[in-house]
Design brief:
- One of its GO terms (cellular component) is extracellular region.
- Strands 12, 15, 17, 18, 20, 21, 23, 25, 28, 31, 33, 35 and 37 form a 13-stranded parallel β-sheet that branches. Strands 16, 19, 22, 24, 26, 27, 29, 30, 32, 34 and 36 form an eleven-stranded parallel β-sheet that branches. Strands 1, 4, 5, 8, 9, 10 and 11 form a seven-stranded antiparallel β-sheet that branches.
- The protein is mainly β.
- The protein has five helices and 38 strands.
- A hairpin with an 8-residue loop joins β4 and β5.
- Helix content is about 10%, strand content about 35%.
Length: about 575
């Protein structure tokens, strides 16, 4: 078996390692090396009242991402800390804003800082070593111009007719921090010690809460609707957190206007999952989730306007049922509505996303730009709901892609199905019962799929209505705005398509052409820069549904390279000026 070629991110990491090796062999930076790092060294500028650490910071790389930017650098000899700043590239130097100390981290061979909450645009970052609580301004260095992109705020979580109108949580829809937002940083060492004031009654009384589970529990009654941003740095294990619920979840219940996000490439929930219940306008992003005991991410009951995006979801802990050897659901949506699940990377999940369980009322969910990377099934598996599925990359799926039951309606458009065995299934008809099969979906009634402009390669079987008007998997539309005639019905239950996508329910969105889906999704799905956990499947994995033992072994032995959090920053009021 031949491994896939190195990704651009892996090439970048190798280049960084080579640069570190060169730096380790020499105390003097050459002009050539500084140029290759694309930085502007300001050590020749004369400044008053400055300190010197003896050698300058050397930037390894600086990058823009989705509403964030980051920089990595080598340690400056003699420095006791670092201040890091950011500004728009076009702004004056007086506009530099200092990053929070917790956004600066030390790794085994470099330092890194991430600035979060940026709107789309061009930025620069500045690193200033500190010594004896003073900035060594002679040694400061500024990055090249960093381009920051906006997140794609589309789908039902952002529908104008939805209850909250947004799923941006503690942020504004331009990506910047909401006014009056609280920001709480959690790490493995402070997750039970961090404090925040929470409004706990109708009179507006503020209660000081200690530990993340206490902070979230006190917000359950919904008195405190101030924007809250929880930023998680590094790996946090289940054993680190006091107060997880009985099934191993960190529970966000009754919350309003909350973002739970990872910092940088390596924020990892190890051995626990996230449960969101009875919550409104919640965003969950940029986390790795490993060996969770139940579901990885569970949206369960009473939620509205939830945005789950840019997460890396790996194997869960094996359950007691035969179909739970890779864990239970990776990202399940039950009794929740106006949800967007986007740009997530599912690594060989057994059951990606159950969408509807005991639901009896219609609900609305969008799945877009997710990377179903050799995951087996439930991408998603739908009951009752109204679901839009576009621009996802179905990459080597051994069982099926989209499954509809119990009268659900799914619009499946502009996706790329590569070696997905059964791209689309409706219960008890078409491919679901081909070859005498009893069906995949526990004998439930069928639903309806409208398919448009999908790219399908290597499927075992896919039956469109134009080829069989009764035993079809999906109705094939010739135009996006085509309505499905009511004469097309599911064999079991006689259910028709509800044509939601041509009604006033629909939101604005701009789909990619299916030819561009693979490139876009593999570039931006998952955590920042693809996260710190790298794995490439082979073509032989396309047809396998059993646990990949090598992947499981790597997950079980995972350990973050993080050494410490905080740059020993000094709050400065003096900014560099020319």
């Amino acid at each position: 078996m031949v491994k896939k070629p190195l990704t651009s991110d892996q090439v970048k990491k190798i280049s960084k390692q080579l640069m570190l090796a060169v730096l380790a062999s020499s105390m003097v930076m050459t002009t050539c090396l500084s140029a290759s790092a694309s930085t502007y060294n300001l050590s020749s500028v004369s400044l008053e009242n400055t300190q010197s650490v003896g050698n300058t910071v050397s930037i390894l790389e600086s990058n823009g991402w989705l509403e964030s930017a980051n920089v990595e650098w080598t340690e400056a000899k003699g420095a006791t800390g670092y201040n890091v700043y950011c500004k728009l590239a076009s702004a004056s130097d007086s506009e530099y804003k200092q990053l929070d100390n917790q956004l600066i981290r030390k790794y085994s061979s470099y330092f890194r800082a991430d600035v979060l909450g940026l709107s789309q645009g061009d930025y620069v970052m500045k690193i200033v070593p500190t010594i004896n609580n003073k900035e060594a301004s002679l040694e400061q260095i500024i990055t090249k111009t960093i381009k920051v992109k906006a997140n794609t705020r589309e789908g039902f979580a952002f529908a104008s007719g939805s209850p909250m109108g947004t799923g941006s949580g503690g942020y504004k829809d331009d990506g910047t921090v909401a006014s009056n937002a609280q920001i709480v940083y959690i790490t493995s060492s402070n997750v039970n010690k961090v404090t925040a004031n929470v409004i706990t009654n109708i009179k507006g009384t503020a209660t000081l809460c200690t530990g993340i589970t206490d902070i979230l529990a006190k917000r359950q009654k919904g008195y405190d609707k101030r924007p809250l941003i929880i930023r998680m740095a590094g790996e946090i294990k289940a054993a680190d957190i006091a107060g997880l619920n009985s099934t191993g979840y960190l529970q966000l219940k009754g919350g309003y206007n909350v973002t739970f996000e990872g910092v940088g490439e390596d924020a990892t929930a190890y051995g626990w999952g996230v449960l969101i219940r009875d919550s409104h306008n919640v965003e969950l992003r940029n986390m790795g989730v490993m060996l969770f005991p139940d579901d990885g991410i569970s949206l369960d009951t009473g939620n509205e306007n939830i945005w789950v995006h840019n997460n890396d979801i790996f194997y869960g802990a094996a359950g007691s049922d035969a179909d739970q050897v890779k864990g239970d659901g990776s990202c399940d949506v039950k009794k929740s509505t106006y949800v967007t699940v986007a740009y997530n990377h599912f690594y060989d999940s057994g059951k990606c996303s159950l969408c509807g369980m005991s639901d009896t009322e219609n609900f609305y969910v969008t799945y877009h730009h997710n990377w179903f990377d050799h995951s087996d099934s439930r991408q998603p598996r739908i009951r009752v709901g109204t679901i839009h599925i576009y621009n996802n990359y179905f990459d080597g799926n051994s069982k099926y892609g989209v499954g509809v039951t119990k009268g659900s309606s799914a619009f499946v458009e502009d996706n790329y199905f590569r070696n997905c065995k059964y791209p689309m299934l409706s219960s008890l008809q078409g491919s679901d019962i081909s070859g005498g099969s009893v069906g995949t979906f526990s004998g439930e009634e069928g639903g309806m799929i409208k398919a448009y402009n999908n790219k399908v390669e290597g499927a075992t079987k896919l039956v469109y209505s134009k080829d069989d008007a009764t035993q079809f998997d999906a109705y094939l539309a010739s135009a996006r705005n085509e309505q499905v005639p009511s004469t097309y019905k599911s064999v079991s239950g006689g259910n028709t398509y509800n044509n939601f996508d041509t009604s006033s329910l629909m939101y604005k969105y701009v789909p990619d052409a299916p030819e561009n889906v693979e490139s876009n999704v593999t570039t931006y799905a998952g955590r920042v820069d693809g996260g710190d956990f790298k794995w490439n499947f082979t073509d032989a994995d396309d047809v396998k549904s059993e646990v990949n033992t090598e992947l499981m072994s790597k997950i079980k032995s995972y350990k973050s390279d993080l050494v410490s959090i905080g740059g020993n920053s000094v709050v400065e009021t003096r900014y560099w000026t020319k």
